[in-house]
Fold this sequence. Notes:
single chain; about 450 residues; alpha/beta; Gyrase A, domain 2; Four Helix Bundle (Hemerythrin (Met), subunit A); 6-stranded mixed beta sheet; about 15% strand; flat
Amino acid sequence: MSLYPQVPIAAIATAPGRGGIGVVRISGAALADYAQRLLGRSLVPRHAHYLPFTSADGEVIDEGLALFFPAPHSYTGEDVLELQGHGGPAVLKRLLDRCLQAGAPLGLRLAEPGEFTQRAFLNERMDLAQAEAVADLIDASSEAAARGAMASLSGQFSRQVTALSDRIVHLRMLVEATLDFPEEEIDFLEKYQARGTLDELSATLAALIATSRQGQILREGLHVVLAGVPNVGKSSLLNALAGDDIAIVTPIAGTTRDRVIQNIHIEGVPLYIVDTAGLRATDDEVERLGIERTWKEIERADLILHMQDARDHAAPPDPSIMDRLPPRTPVLRVFNKIDLIEDDTPLEAGTLRISAKQGLGLDALRSEILKIAGWNPGIESPWMARERHMQALNTAADHLALATAHAAHDDRVLDLFAEELRLAHQSLTAITGVFTSDDLLGEIFSSFCIGK
Length: 452
């Protein structure tokens, strides 16, 4: 994404389609005179003005509210003009065209995706983690996800990261000062209790990673694949979890020929449940293609529910299935159809008994899914976290671990100790955008909707 903060931009800021209200947003430098030319009157900052929006020849395009927010007290940190009219696509397009026409002498152009929020970041109205939370709040699919995005947008996550960064910087300052004055012969590690401080930093970072993992689950959800031989009740379980007849269920083996995906929520956590074709050898070309798609879904799963008929619980798992399951993906063996048997024999760890048809054991299944995912319901309103945040946090943890290893020696390795602290600090500051490449900024903001 190109960075031209000095050039004014405009876009329709409301979602495409028909609506009661539509908003055209303009951001740039010194827009007060432009607003007066466009609207035929001056605007009082931060006051709503009801007036007609007219074309260049005076034809009324629409009527609505105009609001002017002078820099720096605006969303982007620049002058911002918002025109709120009716939400019809044709009306909004005419209004946007009129704004672009009137702003042509200023170089006014259409905004790129996420450019308003990008300018807010560049003008230090928010840090990078907060800017990303804007998109997460818009995309939130549950109340819990919305709370998490709002927690990030309000700066909870950033404050935790910044506080930890500051503590690392303080320790860096002490060790580098010691390196600058070696003649003082100070036993740095002992005098400043560096080992104990480092242990505290590592523990704080570990807690931060745990909470952030919660936020990552909220944002990205879990890809849960139902796998097994035909007619073990995969489609019945999908319907039971979804609370609706999503998939066709019949006694005929091989009914499901293609994947069926349903989004559900458990305690606010989004789950993408995938029903798949039964795994077996077949000469049916359509079923064979469905089985190929099943294996592709299994390869990208966050969790695999390996379903089996409870009447066959004594039989070992089918090796043709077990040997092909991804070794690093958690697998939960689920024995379905317990309503057809009478057997209370305890099961081994990592197994559950259910009846999708009767709804038996589903609460335990839901709880186990969240447990395997690492979800902790005791942590309220975690902030939202993305994969890049988790990578940065884990990288910082690795560097602190190396610093701890160096601290196990004497002061002769202080230079290595200091370097690991520097790298840990650099990883953390990448989260809030202190050290971030333009390429990464372009990738982040290009995923936003236009007008935000």
